[in-house]
Amino acid sequence: MPESAAVSTAAIELPDSLAETTADQASARVALAGALKAPSHAYLFSGPAGSGKRAAARAFAGEILALGAPDPESARRRAAADPSPHPDLAWLRPPGAQHLVDDVRTRIIEAAPYRPFEGEHRVFVVEEADAMAEESQNALLKTLEEPAPFAHILLVSSQPSALLETVRSRCQVIAFAALSPEALEERLAGTGDPAEVRSAARLAGGDVELAGLLLTDTGRELRAHAEAFARAACAGELDSAPWSGLLDAAEKRGIEAGEEVKDRFDALADQAKDASDRRGEQRIRKEGTDAAKRATRRGRNNALDTGLALVASWLRDLAAVGDGAGGVVLNTDRESALSEDADEVEPRRARRAAELVMDTRRRLSVNVSEELAVEALAFRLEAVLRGA
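Below the sequence we write its predicted structure tokens.
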């Protein structure tokens, strides 16, 4: 970006929450600054995973709800909570591989025409909007075409090409770019050992949330099991079933994700209880139980996918070291172990092995048995890496 452009975007004034979530997103900053002056009825927050679009969408929703609110700061604070207790904010996450058509109909299409409970605006956010089936997208079209003047719909997507053109064309795009390793490293400075932080920033592929996860105990455990899995396949030492450690780490992360969601719902239920709203308390606890189950499943699946991506990164790095391209290594804090393995593996075999891992990741996305798929992968990797 030219220096003049960098200066102009840096000078854009945004509310603190939006400024923080778009610190390295020049295009998004410009678009959001304009959007706040005259909010439109539909936006598409588009960009790769971990680029900050979800956090920006939540902050933007809070700013819209604050407009004309009797207590703007309270509106912002409640919108920022997850789950949010704000009555005019509906936030949809897919319970599984796809959004439920009924959820889209009842929580957006049927709710959007009704006036706000407080303030002057209502906001409807669809996270992972690309996970809406075509039926859901078609059902949403009329709401996008003829919205109530107070209703604002925010679609958040890492794969906007999966959305119908008719849906995309009715939304103003807020574009996010993948964060550079340098930007991630700067954001994560002071959160761990500098060598580990640098490696996490390179392994994350621009995903700030993933980089942060890799610097937690859970992330370190997941990374350690992924490395052990890859190295066992390189050495032909599969008798100890090294894939089980990866599966166990993913299961543990799923349980943690479910507990995090349950804790948030329990806090809201306790607030309802303190307000003597017994019916509200019961409803929130039931929603929390269901949401926690979904979060556990999604957390486990996402963690396993991350673990396999880490296996692929190890194999990719082996090929790079074997080809004398150590400068592009991602696991920068494990160069000694990589060099040790690279002495025993031909670069072309390491590259082919990484492709097998990516193929398994794709197959797992369509509900292939996880344990069988990962076990089969281990033996396929051994055969390729050792020339069997």
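Confidence is low (pLDDT under 50) at residues 1-10.
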